[in-house]
Amino acid sequence: MAENPVKGVFLILISYLFLNLALSADTQIAKKTYIVQMDKSAMPNSFTNHLDWYSSKVKSVLLEPENEGDEDRIMYNYQTAFHGVAVQLSQEEAERLEEEDGVVAIFPETKYQLHTTRSPLFLRLEAGYSTNNNVWGQKILGHDVIVGVLDTGIWPESESFNDMGMTPVPSRWKGKCETGRGFEERHCNKKIVGARVFYQGYEAATGKINGQTEFKSARDQDGHGTHTAATVAGSPVRGANLQNYANGTARGMSPGARIAAYKVCWAGGCFSSDILSAVDRAVADGVNVLSISLGGGVSSYYRDSLSIAAFGAMEMGVFVSCSAGNGGPDPVSLTNVSPWITTVGASTMDRDFPAIVKLGNGRIMNGVSLYKEERMLLKNSKQESYPIVYMGSNSSSLEPSSLCLDGTLDRHIVEGKIVICDRGISPRVQKGQVVKEAGGVGMILSNTANNGEELVADCHLLPAVAIGETEGKAIKRYVSTSPNATASFAFLGTRLGIRPSPVVAAFSSRGPNFLTLEILKPDLVAPGVNILAAWTGNLGPSSLPTDPRRVKFNILSGTSMSCPHVSGIAALLKARHPDWSPAAIKSALMTTAYVHDNTRNSLKDSSTDAPSSPFDHGAGHIDPVRALDPGLVYDIEAQDYFEFLCTQSLTPSQLKVFSKHSNRSCKHSLASPGDLNYPAISAVFPEKASTAVLTLHRTVTNVGPPVSNYHAMVSPFKGVSVHVEPQSLNFTRKYQKLSYKVTFTTISMQPVPEFGGLVWKDGVHRVRSPIVITWLSPI
């Protein structure tokens, strides 16, 4: 039978149509968000504003300009800390745009993650220590200092954001209270002075936000942003607690400071284009401090959009504090390592939440928990203890069932029993949920080698106790050798005066800073374990959607919690010293930090129980009272940071991302990156074996009494001799600058870095710089 020609043509047309649809779909999928940095000064005179010029540039590279306007492609226009746009492009379009005149750099979108009381008293900020040292009693509460918090938003009804007694918002403030579902203008006040949302990059990457299940407004349904904002500048709230744990007065580090909430994180994460827009907007609004408890890995300075934006913020006088990350105890796990960013690690306080596991053989295991005791502990009148089961083998390798991952527990085995779950892979509280759903009556959360003996308390959904690796191994041995192994729990509430403390948290990310060994990171550590602060009313304390409990305060751990401690204390310093630069504030925090715990021994690393090093704790643990009066500061101007970049083997086009509209150029004032006037000193001997002598230079500014005389003291080292010249600094006026140099002469190369310190003392002040000496030459 003959083929119908009309039918054949129709089939060809249909095939062609589907092919085009497929290609169109591929084209859509191929588009992603790029951040385009522009040279603001290169705008031709034919344009009246920069956005029109940016739009013209974007339109000129579109592969189908007649079908798609650039208006839909451009998502953000950056104008203050950064100049350019965030735009949707295909890879080919991005490559074409990168060749255009006036385009400085193009960055692909990057996904960032959140780095997820007692601390004011522990940090000597309250009158409990000395009325003379009561920082809040010295009328520097910082009413005109504004801290921008980039996070998941804010829960405005929390008592921590009460503005009672606060003065009117300063007239210089240009921020805005953006409204949306669940957030109205009335939710801003003299404490919460601004609230903005940024989601264009997030939606471009993940699809439209479901406004029915997620607040597309500054309202926080995650809790993380509320917790960090309250830690920075929460108003005092008496009787704050989490289910009777940590009962007391909760307040932020700078309770008189104001908060501007910039919501950049959503259910599926945080994206660089949104973060960059928030930094840009916050600087334009007039914040004094930026608190950013998130990170996205490490890339070269010129490829890190947050680093570039932070550089712009620093140029405008804004102090930027970022979390170091929760990648510890692995070395070289830091994020946010740029020298103009204050990078904060986490430490413990002298408060704990002890719980015990009593085994059937009479042995007592010590652990921690925030489970709300139901009066009968884990006992009832008929049964004193319950059987224990461990679903893994006793090998060193972890298994899905030993980790209590979702769907891995057999109800027939675990029902009515206490289940041992290994820590890792899934959230700690989620393991308890898995046990509960499988019929278990309790959980013992056992640390592995990755966590060592560090204990983090959680608000579990069922009776549960977290124990260290050593105790965990002992319980597993007991279970494997005793067919009728049993246990019971006891929850002992809140205990103060824990010794030793502080201790560097095992999860806190570690150095060295592999981008530039001469810049010691982290900068310092601050409380980040078991921190009580305000919480969202939308989610239970376990953060699990199945948790029906609602609390006003929650206890969290992470460098996300330590970062706002530093941000709030920086706000205190800014209130006391409004003319100080971000570098001066950072110097005061670092040079007054302490490196001994409350037993007068060196700070310890929780993961090893051995002394920690500057790669773990940076300059040491923050001491806000001493930081208010540091005596001397190491100041750094924007051009100095640029000169540091000039030592980093960057090309002129790569350096241009930092010069932007300021037209900075290299003056080559630094002989090496180690000569940046950083408060920490890192001497790196290069691979050339002939280099036996290394000299680094520093300049200090007197911010203490006009007439001050300082004398240098330096710790001894095995591998080098250290000479400081001059050994005395004699100041005759305030703000006078004096310089010195430190010469390191190799005695014998060491296989591992050496640590020590240089201290300048005048009888009142003790200005300490950590010293790290590293040999790159093979031993």
From TrEMBL:
GO terms for cellular component: apoplast. The active site is at 151 (charge relay system), 224 (charge relay system), 560 (charge relay system). Gene3D superfamilies: 2.60.40.2310, 3.50.30.30, Peptidase S8 propeptide/proteinase inhibitor I9, Peptidase S8/S53 domain. Residues 600-619 are annotated as: Disordered. Residues 142-601 form the Peptidase S8/S53 domain. GO terms for biological process: proteolysis; response to symbiotic bacterium; response to symbiotic fungus; system development. Residues 386-475 form the PA domain. Keywords: Apoplast, Glycoprotein, Hydrolase, Protease, Secreted, Serine protease, Signal. The keyword Plastid does not apply. PROSITE patterns: SUBTILASE (PS51892), SUBTILASE_SER (PS00138). CDD domains: PA_subtilisin_like, Peptidases_S8_3. Residues 33-115 form the Inhibitor I9 domain. GO terms for molecular function: serine-type endopeptidase activity. It comes from the Eukaryota. Residues 675-773 form the Subtilisin-like protease fibronectin type-III domain. Required for arbuscular mycorrhiza (AM) development during AM symbiosis with AM fungi (e.g. Glomeromycota intraradices). Belongs to the peptidase S8 family. This is Subtilisin-like protease SBT1.3. It comes from Castanea mollissima.
